[in-house]
Write a structure and sequence with these properties.
By secondary structure, the protein is an alpha+beta fold. It is built from eight helices and five strands. A five-stranded mixed beta sheet has the order 1-2-5-4-3. It is flat.
């Protein structure tokens, strides 16, 4: 998909760190995209459609599985599509060309869906049903629940491809799916806020990292205890 001269100009302006009001430029450009149906807007819309497709699949699974059990396995579903400036920064970080083709070929996390479940076994149950669907192709799988990161971070990460249907026909899109429990999501949200806090001295940062890792262990233990409680209730 070729970019117009206007698109190239806007992208160049967005990536130049010396340009003033960078975010304002991008926001104004995005507003213009809605009016002109520019190729960049078309690309972002494709990712929005991919997110809706995946969200719908999980909502249907949640409803179907709740019929078979006594609870809805999914507590919440959150989704997002990276903003244009976030996409550009990611391309710069990876030293990739600032081009539409580069985004679609190299970035697999532009569209993201986060599925928050009640219990750990719900995550694997829903994952299995989701990946068994014929129009979902698994690209990569990283299980940070069974193999937590050194920080204590826990979550199941999937990169999948799923088709959307546009005015130009079928198009396969990458979507990143993160699956975690309520406790994992709570921990990850707080860890994210603290990790980006500036001006921490090295000693404080190290102590906080140790404290957060300990909190992650306690959070995982809580998930296990709640699962045992549920199993005891089911046995009565």
């Amino acid at each position: 998909m070729a970019m117009s001269e206007k698109t190239k100009t806007a992208l160049s302006a967005a990536v130049d760190p010396m340009k003033a009001k960078e975010h304002e430029i991008i926001e104004q450009y995005l507003e213009q995209l809605h009016a002109d149906y520019d190729p960049v807007y078309s690309m972002l819309l494709n990712y929005e459609c991919a997110v809706m497709e995946v969200e719908t699949k999980f909502n249907i699974l949640n409803n179907r599985l709740s019929i078979q059990g006594e609870h809805n396995p999914i507590e919440s579903i959150k989704s997002r599509v990276k903003s244009l400036d976030s996409i550009i920064r990611k391309l710069e970080k990876l030293n990739l060309p600032i081009e539409l083709e580069s985004v679609e070929k190299n970035l697999t996390d532009v569209a993201g869906v986060r599925v928050v479940c009640s219990f750990v076994d719900d995550i694997y149950r829903i994952e299995k049903c989701f990946l068994e669907q014929e129009d979902v192709t698994l690209i990569t799988r990283k299980d940070y629940i069974k193999n937590p990161k050194p920080s204590g971070y826990r979550s199941l990460h999937l990169i999948v491809q799923t088709p959307i249907y546009t005015e130009n026909g079928k198009k396969d899109m990458f979507v990143e799916v993160q699956m975690r429990t309520i406790a994992m999501d709570f921990w990850a949200s707080l860890e994210h806020k603290l990790r980006y806090k500036k001006n921490l001295n090295p000693r404080t940062a190290e102590e906080l990292a140790e404290e957060l890792a300990a909190c992650a262990e306690e959070s995982a233990a809580l998930d296990e205890r709640m699962l045992r409680v549920r199993e005891r209730i089911a046995q009565d």
